[in-house]
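Hey L., structure's done. Input below.
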Amino acid sequence: MTIDELKAERERVLARRNALVSRVTVGDRTVQYDLAQAAKVLADLDRRIAQAEGTGRRRHILTVASKGL
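Output:
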């Protein structure tokens, strides 16, 4: 997928997530829905967009040594 397609997909997922209702009450019963799946999809899309743009997270490797005292 291209960067533009990834960004368009992210906008669609974000709009869909914002349209979802996390809690529904009918009479004396309440149901709460978990929106974690939408958050995982958005995080994955953000990661893929950053990787495609070349602005992904940079990893730092820290080397530690001791004399064993």
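The longest strand covers residues 23-26. The beta strands are 23-26, 29-32.

-- N.
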